């Protein structure tokens, strides 16, 4: 439905989008993910013809956006909910949009009803909260009853109630068979709504896959063991085909390639005492942050020194780094230790942070 | 039984589309926009108040002072110009605000992105804005010009020197003032399209219409006489004069108007090209 081919755009010296290609298939909810500054909004502006690409093409149902007979009947797009003349009432705002596409006046009342703004229809938009503005913007996208909806960061800045409303709305729109293309910098927003994911960083495509594929890629799990007989365990685990990633100072080992039960059995067979046996799983959020770690544009100052330690994990595609990711669970208990483990493995500061925040541990 | 995975078709909420979105719808949209913000009413109200009020004040003042005026002053007094002076001197400043804001307010609020998403054919949007502004400005400036004229003349009745529309040049002066002020609005619109910033557009248009003519007066008079006919504001002064000969250094009134119109059309064209080409 949306076909993006070789899209590039620079603003001055800054490359916003770099040779980006992907497509959004009809009837899906496609999540468009990337850290802030990754080029999501730029891409959406290029799709809508608000900005012109330096190279590449974008088509919607085979046509450029500006060539669509009735743009609002094919695409409902909301890039910025505050892009409204504050002096105009909600009703008149929607009316002037509807008129451009020869949509009947009654649609204005209908969409106001749909988003729950009927009571404030005659109020000027400048008095609207962000949540109300968001509803007004969404009302605008629904005027033409389009089959394709595009939202840029629709839950940004909303309160929990607003977030829930947007989520439910997106689900409802998708359930009606519409295509929804929605951007976010939070994986957690997509986990339960998107069928398909397009991940970009620094304007470039990082992943274009179904949600299942993304989960499969990122569900690499590791086993964390702590034992007073670390050396012995490392030896027997390696013999059994597991990979031991040296742990921190507490003698913990992180083992990949074996499941927790296998590690426990091996330890039992060789008389190794275990003090801890833990499954460490990378969450989708962690997977996403790991994937985009190198493309995060602005970093907090305290990350600076660690930045120098960040090295690309050689020969490993991002998905494989996820396995190593679980290792940094240690970071949760001891910071100094985790920094050590990190430099030993060339693991990213982002992975570390992500891990500490989001990883789930399954205790056996 | 096979489970169908296709979604049930949504019941249509709109009649099937025919043709394509074009100028007509965009024109209604732009009219809705201009009539649905308070700033439009404020500027137009100020325009009417200034045009009519100042014309009336000059006329009433002249009438009260008539008996003390020297015969030479009486002879050169231009009752038509006096009654519409508020419109073409100050009304042009007010319409500049309205004209510039038609487009710059969309940039300052961000509405332009929403507008161009609804209607991505930019030249259509631009043309609709120009037409709506022109029509609104014409209606209001014509109303201002005729009200100011008739009110001014009624206040001048006691002088037995008041003008009527049937006298030479009078209708031209009244209509010309309205057209000149409307053109100022379009000139400002074009400046807004080029500069995309309200304050910058208003300031530069006022500079061109007001400040440059004042500076031109500082030139040696022979130079000034060469330059004056090419200044955009000469149209207003030339059109509103009904008594006495035309200044020799100017073109005919409609000639001066044509000069201004050509400037405006060029600026509008530049604005259209930029509006079409630039990122919104």
Summarize the structure.
The complex is a heterodimer of chains A (about 375) and B (about 280). By secondary structure, chain A is of the alpha/beta class.
Describe what you observe in this structure:
The complex is a heterodimer of chains A (about 375) and B (about 280). Chain A is α/β, with parallel strands linked by helices and about 375 residues long. Chain A has 2 domains: about 1-210, P-loop containing nucleotide triphosphate hydrolases (Rossmann fold, 3-Layer(aba) Sandwich), CATH 3.40.50.300; about 220-364, no CATH class. Helix content of chain A is about 40%, strand content about 25%. Chain A contains 15 helices and 14 strands. Chain A has a 6-stranded mixed sheet, with helices on both faces. Chain A has a 5-stranded antiparallel sheet with strand order 11-12-10-13-14. In chain A, helix 4 (about 105-115) crosses helix 5. The two termini of chain A are about 45 Å apart. Residues about 300-364 of chain A have low confidence and may be disordered. Chain B has helices spanning about 25-35, 40-65, 70-75, 80-110, 110-120, 120-155, 170-195, 200-215, 220-225, 235-240, 255-275. Chain B has 11 helices and no strands. Chain B has about 280 residues and is an all-alpha fold. Chain B has a domain at about 25-35 and about 85-140 and about 160-275. Residues about 1-5 of chain B have low confidence and may be disordered.
